[in-house]
Every structure is written in structure tokens, then in C-alpha cells.
Specification:
The protein is globular. A seven-stranded mixed beta sheet has the order 3-2-1-4-5-7-6, sandwiched between helices. The two termini are 27 Å apart. By secondary structure, the protein is α/β, with parallel strands linked by helices.
């Protein structure tokens, strides 16, 4: 899924120490809860779960969450939290969804700031479509298309996304009821010392009935 496993492995131990990251995770969770009709009968899959902060924030609204991430160190951090909290409705595994299929099917697949790390978006949408039950939901949070300034220190497959392009790809993959909404702005200092805002969207869609 993510081509930069070593980068994320190295960052895992300090990942949760960034206050702004933890605060926006709370906002992302609140947006998902208010937008989606979550309930305790739903099985959910989180792609790019990292250390599990978002999954843990959604745990009280879902029946079961499987978090997957290609970074083994991120998954280890998440697993420690699960064990420490004694949770049996969340699990996590190190897995690249573009190469391997998670076990089972899901009513919901979601992610936050993970899609722009995935090179083949058409493939990932097809994989997600196959994992969802009929009328299952896909919800993901990511950056609007930008000029590359956000990841100034590394190269990623996508510098954000155009909603028009994503809508076409989702539709071609069998999704319907596709909606985009700006939910947040990430403030980052650029190389010239200036602060710039990068808008973030929530995209929701549903697996069309065949």
C-alpha cells in the first residue's frame, strides 16, 4: 500500500507525540461520526491505520474495526494500545492491501491521509469495492490537489487529489452517491518560513447494487 514503510517505521515511536496530529484525529473522528450512520453491528476496515488513534476514537461507534498498515512498527504501536486497553473489538495487522486481501468483508472502509501514499488509486478502489458488502460505504479523508509543498521533504505518488478525477475513478469502480466536503485545514511552515493552509476533504461513497 504505502511505498515508504521505512520512513513510517522510523516515525512510529514518536507519532502520537505531535499535538496537532492528535487534535486533527479527533476532528476527523467527529466528522466521520456525524456524516456516516455508524452502528455497533458494522464491521469496518481502516486503511493506513498507523498507531490506531483514529480507530480508537471510532471504537465506541462500530462493532469491529480491523486496522491495516504496511508499516510493521506502526502496527506494533497500535497492538500495544489494544492490549493495554483490553479491547476485543479492534484488531490490527501489517498488510499491503494492494498485494494481499484482508480477511472477511466489511460494511465500511475508511482512511485518513493515506490515499495520497497509494500509487494505484484505480486498483485500491477496485480492492475496496470487492471487500464491501452490497451498499457498503467508503469514506476517506485526504488533501485537495496541491503543488507538492505539503510533502516538501519527500516524494509521494499524489500531491493531493482533484475531486473531479476521484469522482470519475470511484464511479468507474462501481461506487455511487459520491460526495466531497472540506472539513479541515492543515497549517504547515514552508521552506521560506511562511505558513500555508492545506485544505482537507472528506469523500463518502457507497457500493452500488449490481
Amino acid at each position: 500500500m504505502i511505498k515508504y514503510e521505512n520512513q513510517f517505521d522510523q516515525a512510529a515511536a514518536q507519532w502520537d507525540q505531535k499535538t496537532e496530529r492528535m487534535e486533527r484525529t479527533k476532528i476527523f473522528a467527529a466528522e466521520l461520526k456525524s456524516t456516516l450512520s455508524l452502528n455497533k453491528s458494522m464491521r469496518a476496515l481502516e486503511i493506513g491505520c498507523g498507531t490506531g488513534s483514529l480507530a480508537l476514537a471510532l471504537e465506541d461507534s462500530l462493532g469491529f474495526i480491523l486496522g491495516i498498515d504496511s508499516s510493521q512498527e506502526m502496527v506494533k504501536m497500535f497492538l500495544r494500545k489494544i492490549i493495554q486497553l483490553g479491547l476485543n473489538d479492534i484488531d490490527t495487522v501489517s498488510l499491503d492491501i494492494c498485494r494481499h486481501r484482508p480477511e472477511g468483508n466489511f460494511e465500511l472502509v475508511y482512511s485518513a491521509l493515506a490515499m495520497h501514499h497509494i500509487e494505484n488509486i484505480d486498483l485500491i478502489f477496485s480492492r475496496i469495492h470487492n471487500l464491501l458488502y452490497p451498499e457498503g460505504k467508503l469514506a476517506f479523508i485526504d488533501l485537495y490537489e496541491e503543488d507538492g509543498s505539503f510533502h516538501r521533504d519527500s516524494i509521494v505518488p499524489h500531491n493531493g487529489f482533484s475531486p473531479e478525477v476521484l469522482e470519475a475513478k470511484l464511479s468507474n469502480s462501481g461506487f455511487t452517491n459520491i460526495k466531497f466536503r472540506e472539513i479541515y485545514k492543515i497549517e504547515k511552515e514552508l521552506l521560506d518560513g511562511k505558513i500555508r493552509s492545506f485544505p482537507v476533504f472528506l469523500c463518502t461513497s457507497q457500493k452500488a447494487l449490481s
